[in-house]
Records
---
Amino acid sequence: MTDFGLVRPPVLAGAALLRDEPLRQDTGRQKEAWATARVVLVDEEGRSPVRWGPPVDGSGADAVPGADAVPGVDDAGANPRLWMPPATEVAGSPPPDALLLGEADGVAYWAVRGGAEQTAAGDEVRWLNLFSVGAELGERDAALLAAGVALLNWHGRAQFCAHDGSPTRLANAGWARVCEAQHHEEYPRTDPAVICLVHDGADRMLLGRHRAWPAGRFSVLAGFVEAGESLEACVAREIGEEVGLDVTDIRYLGSQAWPFPRSLMLGFHAVADPAQPLRLDETEISEALWVTRDEVREALARGDGWATADDSPATATPPIRLPGRMSIARTMIDSWSAAG
């Protein structure tokens, strides 16, 4: 088995938002749409208010208070949704620092930086980040939070022009910044990174543990694409640098937005020879091992292990914990496991 596909789309891989570029430049339409728009609130830590329960109205923007358990932590929670206040409750018209995320079902959605003290959401909401709740949100809400977090992260790091160092101002409803001195335009950056599931073409795959992770936590290997480098060349280089393996038969699987802070994960799988010695880059990888499909299935059966890995009892050989469903890494591992 040298080829397989993803068994499901990764989280944050859909197209639930209409990214209407003309609307970003049409202030008249923006003001008209503001009357029915909703606002995604994101605090300084990347968290947004979330409620559980069925939607109150057809917009799906609000929800009645339900169980406040966090999926993956408590079992009582169900149907998490972003709590998004009507835009008119935030301001009478689009504020200068508001970011237009897009439209869905005729409703415009904006993002603003705001915390619990600026809302009337109530005690029934939980302020959670995308990593902890993204896999449980619906496709639209996950896309909204991902876009909001990514854009706000970029604006926070693009206050000065890369050409001349002058201050920049927001433009195009948040999708550009223009410098005050020479009017240079800058656009939101996305940093491409490859993530690769290495296998032997049969019944074994490679897992690695980053040096900052606790014992037992493993995933597939990843790294950023360098300037002038193709994706396939990056896969081969990263695997060679991190574990010393030569890979062949590099094949694309799918992609996932990853706004931590502004990346795009591009998933691949590739074949390597388990007989080739592993040579770890110990500045990044503290442990790597080949595991069988049965061992992977056993690890998957233990659940979303990263949520509980830090709390696992100390043992001489901690059980393998794999990424939760938020990450494309988990989708890739699930797909390889199912392919056999």
---
Amino acid sequence: MNAIAAAELKMLARNRVVAGGALLFPLVFGGFLYFSRDTHKAGGAVAGVQLVVMVAMGTYVTATTTLASRRQTLYLKRMRGAAVSDRAIIAGLVSPLIAVNAVQLAIVLGALASADAPANPALLIVAVLVAEAMFTGLALATAGFSTSPEHAQYTTMPIFLTATVAAVWFEATGTDSLIAVKRALPGGALAELVATAWNGGSSAKVPLLLVPTLAWAVVGVLAARAFFRWEPRR
């Protein structure tokens, strides 16, 4: 797995298009939210949008594109012929993307924390881990429907846009209305979890926020087991 991850990291650096999507865009978006935020308000809502969109962009979209690309070039098929388990192959391919995204989050959220420190850093770390798990699971599922890297740009749009809208919706309106709908959408409960960790709040609702997010991760994994393909789709 380590050898696959190292090779994937090198390939990521060489591919300008994928590197831009994985490295540049999430940082640019996170920085834009940081500099355009209302400094008179608590930073939890902004942090929630930053985390959801950055992970959706840096892990979900990039992992889906990477898996579709490796399938198209028959890389996945060749790796399955080696003495490597399926799980090790997938882990080797997606772990560099997750690691890079975690560094991006550390930079952007660290900048926000320098001006407005989170009330519960441990819960914030949990939120990051859960976010990576959810979007990785969804990436595996979406890759099953993506016939090529170009096609992946379209197949990832529904979940990416839904997660972004849910996070922004929560930032704009909070928990005042339709809270069950917001939490049920991918990214909605996650944004609220980040805001709770950042601004402080009742720990009693934390399980209510973790369950929908982890449920989306499980849905992604189950869908991936049903639809993921190791050879090019025709």
---
Amino acid sequence: MSTMSDECRELLLESRRHAPLYGNRLANHLPMALLALDRLGADAATMRRFAGGYARKLLPAALPSSALDPHDVLGSAGDYSRFAAFFQDRIREAGPEAVLHDWVPVLMPGVAASAFHGLIRLAYAIEGGLEDEIALSLAYWASEYAPLPLSLAPSEGTLEQIAGHLRGKVADHVFKPGIIIDKMLEIAWDPALAGAVVQPAAAPSLREIAGFGLDAYRRREDFTLLHVVTGCHAFRIVQRYASDQALARRYLWQAVLAAWLTVTAGQAGRAEAGADGPEAGEEEIAARAILSSDDHVIKLCYSALCEYREYGNPAYLRIAARKLAL
């Protein structure tokens, strides 16, 4: 686990007074954005200014309550505070590494939780190394746990071929109003996908899944696809705690595919393609992202820089530069 600045640590401790969701079940990005800002090199005044502005829309966290083991009640959003107490107790007893090794495999089938935000918040918490934030992130993921009813059976074809075939099956799907995770679950439950094969013969590599998400977002500036990019970055950090990493990647691919289908199927499939962003270097992207008041801009730029350093694909820099330009 990594460390964080003293100012970021203090702000994260203060952020515990906020609930993990606000508005219409929207994710509280404050802990994630603060850690991203810290990693991007923001100074104390910048982080505190961002936190003060962002916190105005957040809801107060529920009062502490008795601990509840989430095993038998995963996805019970109303039990978040009890799950938090459980994970705080377990981390005090066994330490964060042991708890992560125990619980990431349990939660991985529901990696779609809150449109990848359970996974993303946990990844940032692991990077920061703050035990209480790890506990709250695990509680958040457990409370929003969302398994998808898609087959894990393997078949032939690349990720792109499988995705294209399934897109044809749901070409006439008309979505109900809802947020990203609602639409992911809705498309996964479409009768046209019942029993459909969505997995390649060999478990896809994370590079392949991340590349699929990057290409999709590069072609279309879309809010859902942005979360695919940041979700794949988060998975790279969390995956070491999965007991079966190949199986974990299959769960990730299910979620990425469902998210992609919500953008490309039905009416959404008529969205215009995006264009490549302007050229920009790592230092410029970081410097401009720090100045943004948009949590999604900050997080995307941070993920893009991390993924560029991991894979060396300059398209990550281009999507960050495009987002900053927008």
---
Amino acid sequence: MSTTPEVLRTALALAATGVPVLPLRAGKAPFGNCHQCANNACGGRPNMKSTGPCRCPGVCHAWAAATTDPAVLTSTTWTAAWRRAVTVAYHPGAAGLTVVDLDNAAAVDWARETLPVTRTVSTTRGEHWIYQGAMSSHNAVRPGVDIKSTMSYARYLGPGTGTMTDLPDSVRALAVKRPSTAQPAPHSLAVPAAAGEAACPHRTPAYLDRGITMAEQRITNARSAVHTTVYRTFLAVLSTHGRCGCLTDAHATRLFTAAQAKGESLRHCTDAWINARTRLGL
């Protein structure tokens, strides 16, 4: 009867497909530095950020130690680690992969509305969407969304379902650092009055202000499908207030600010506004 740990059998099978693997201990954390590598004595950065010249044969440099070599994986040092491991992880970037880690239901809803379909793997709280192609890794690119690729590791949770597709520009764009505060709506988004409709049909300016306030609240209260909510809210505002020329850049800025506070980018806001205008023929 084989005494090979189940996690090692899984790791060897995954490594055979060209995906570098490593063991994770309790808490989904990599194994700490060995005595020789402690306190950066080996010349490489300790633990998860190690990229230095260290050639430690152990498992103590997290993603940088990930390997496909069965001789290394079954060595005495690694086998001891596998016996203490609770799960298998892999280095996506080294395998030419990118994992979009969706950490909750709202993030999953956003991905289904925004990203191209690809292979998905269920996690304890959400899903991993796996694309063919590597990029830099980034945490918290939007609420509940991390990108794991180069210099990072991801838990192996099974083969998943669906066909893996190429890494899209929409995922790469998530890594572009956004301003820490909301950006105002760009000028020229106000809708000019159409010919013959210069007179505002609204009874008082307060009517428009209430409409904008309600739209802000609708966006702010969205718990999922934020991207869709923003578009539909813009569509509703423009449908009601967009044909008389009374909407100003100040009104658009209020809506854009509410949307960006929910994690939408300025570009997404602008696209949603323009798409809503186009649909209404404005």
